[in-house]
Design a protein that fits this description.
The chain is of the alpha/beta class and 310 residues long. The chain has eleven helices and 15 strands. It is globular, with a radius of gyration of 23 Å.
Length: 310
C-alpha cells in the first residue's frame, strides 16, 4: 500500500486548469521532494490531499483511505505543516500544543508535548509566549504540532523558508530522524539543495502536470545522458595515464578540471577499475568520488524544456 497515490487528479478554477491528470506514487517510509515553479499546482495538490478543496476529477488515496470520502481517517494519520503556520500568540508553546493535542485526542498529552519540544529543539522555551518566538521557532513549533498525533505521513510545505542556516540544518535533521522512524515525508520546497540532501524521490510538476517522478540519483544522472561523473584527485596526471582510462569499457570521456579529472562512465562502479588503472600506471591517486549534478541544475533543465522524464 502506497502512502500517497493519485490517478488523473485534476482541479479546475473556471477555465484555469491548476492540476491536470496528476498521477503520483509515494511509497511508504521515504522522503518525497515535490517540486515545481511558482504556479505549477503544488499548493493545489496539497490542498486536495488534505481535503481542503475537492478535485474536479480523478482519485487519490492516503494510506489506502480515499481523500473524497475518508477525511477523518486521513487526518488521524497525517500531519501537516503549512508554509505559514498559525498559532495563538498569547499562549505559550506548550499551551498551543495542548490546545491542538486535545483537538486530535492525543493520549498522555503532557508527555508527548515534552517529547516533541525536545525533538524540534524547543526544550526550555515551551513556557514562553509564542508571540515572542522568532520565525524559526514558529516553524519548529509547527512541526511539533504536525507530529502530535504520531502521523504515518507528514506533509511539509516550505518548512525552512526564512530560516537561518542553523535553523534550516536543524529542521533537516528532524526530517532525517523521522524518516528513520518510518514516517513518510512529502516535502514541497523551493530550496533545492536541501531537497537534494534529504529526498529519496523527486516529483516535478509544471503547469499542473507531472513531468518527472524518479529516484533522485537516477533523475540527476538522466539529465547527464544517463552517465555518471567520477572525479579523481592526484598531484599530477600524465597524458599516457588518461589514455589508459579512456580505454576502459564503459568510459565515455575524460576531461581535466582544475587539478582534477572528470571521467564520464555508464556505471559508477567503474570507479574501482579506474583507480586500479591509474595506480598501476604510477599515478598517486589522493581521492575518488562520484560527482553528482546539482538538483538545481537538473530542475532548471527539465522545467525549461518541459521534457517528460517518466
Amino acid at each position: 500500500m502506497n502512502a500517497i497515490e493519485t490517478h488523473g487528479l485534476t482541479r479546475n478554477y473556471g477555465n484555469l486548469v491548476a492540476v491536470k491528470d496528476l498521477n503520483l506514487t509515494v511509497k511508504p517510509g521515504i522522503v518525497y521532494g515535490f517540486l515545481g515553479p511558482n504556479g505549477a499546482g503544488k499548493s493545489t495538490t496539497i490542498n486536495m490531499l488534505m481535503g481542503f478543496i475537492k478535485p474536479t476529477a480523478g482519485t487519490a488515496s492516503i494510506m489506502g483511505f480515499d481523500i473524497k470520502a475518508q477525511h477523518r481517517e486521513i487526518r488521524k494519520i497525517t500531519g501537516y505543516l503549512p508554509e505559514r503556520p498559525a498559532f495563538y500568540d498569547d499562549l505559550s508553546g506548550k499551551g498551543n500544543l495542548e490546545f491542538f493535542g486535545k483537538l486530535v485526542g492525543v493520549e498522555d498529552l503532557d508527555g508527548r508535548i515534552e517529547e516533541l519540544l525536545g525533538t524540534v529543539g524547543l526544550e526550555g522555551r515551551g513556557n514562553d509566549r509564542v508571540g515572542t518566538y522568532s520565525h524559526g521557532m514558529r516553524q519548529r513549533l509547527g512541526i511539533a504540532v504536525a507530529l502530535l498525533g504520531k502521523p504515518k505521513l507528514l506533509i511539509l510545505d516550505e518548512p525552512t523558508t526564512g530560516l537561518d542556516p542553523q535553523g534550516s540544518h536543524d529542521i533537516r535533521e528532524v526530517i532525517k530522524k523521522l524518516k528513520g522512524e518510518n514516517v513518510t515525508i512529502f516535502l514541497s520546497s523551493h530550496i533545492l539543495h536541501e531537497v537534494q540532501d534529504i529526498s529519496d524521490v523527486v516529483g516535478i510538476v509544471k503547469k499542473g502536470q507531472l513531468i518527472v517522478e524518479r529516484p533522485i540519483e537516477e533523475f540527476l544522472r538522466s539529465t547527464e545522458g544517463n552517465m555518471a561523473v567520477i572525479e579523481i584527485a592526484a598531484p599530477k596526471f600524465e597524458d599516457s595515464q588518461l589514455e589508459l582510462v579512456k580505454k576502459i569499457k564503459g568510459v565515455g570521456g575524460v576531461t581535466r578540471n582544475n587539478g582534477f579529472i572528470d571521467v564520464m562512465v555508464d556505471n559508477p562502479a567503474l570507479a574501482e577499475d579506474i583507480n586500479i588503472t591509474l595506480v598501476g600506471a604510477g599515478c598517486r591517486v589522493r581521492g575518488i568520488r562520484e560527482k553528482m549534478p546539482t538538483l538545481e541544475d537538473a530542475f532548471l533543465k527539465v522545467t525549461a524544456e518541459g521534457n517528460v522524464e517518466g
